[in-house]
Write a structure and sequence with these properties.
alpha+beta; 5 helices
Length: 174
Amino acid sequence: MNLDFQPVQQASHLVPESIYQQLHTLDLLDKVQVAEINPDFADGELLHEQYNVPFESELNCLVVQGKRNGLVKHAAVLVPYGRKANTGSPAKHALDVSKVSFAPLEFVIEQTNMEFGSITPLGLPNDWFILADASIFEQTDVIIGGGLVKYKLQIATKDLKQIPNLIVVENLAK
């Protein structure tokens, strides 16, 4: 079975309002696509097995917080499926902070209005950064969470680069 993608413009009811608004602002409503999935197969190998999604197309999105001198910065971190986020030097340098750690889950869900397991770089608070591992852009299209676990988004990597506050980082994935 393959994912049945359709443009968000034609299926706006499948994405949270914050994602829809950002896609509208970026003029990507007809380019980014959404598909409904069984949430039991939302991640990794299960998504690959159930929906024939190539592993190299799948991205994980994690939220971190960086601190320096009492200032806290938040960022979504995009890494290819099967690789871990390097919260060491690459993330610290990109955010210009001295310490990076994973943000508390309750905070992330409250701030994003998204579900655990489907956080996506679209529709995040305006002051958050998006750190994307450089290797992601070797792909033409990628599959990311849709804000709700029962949806996936497909976006061209050239369109992913249009997201405000996106920083491409070498060696962010390990």
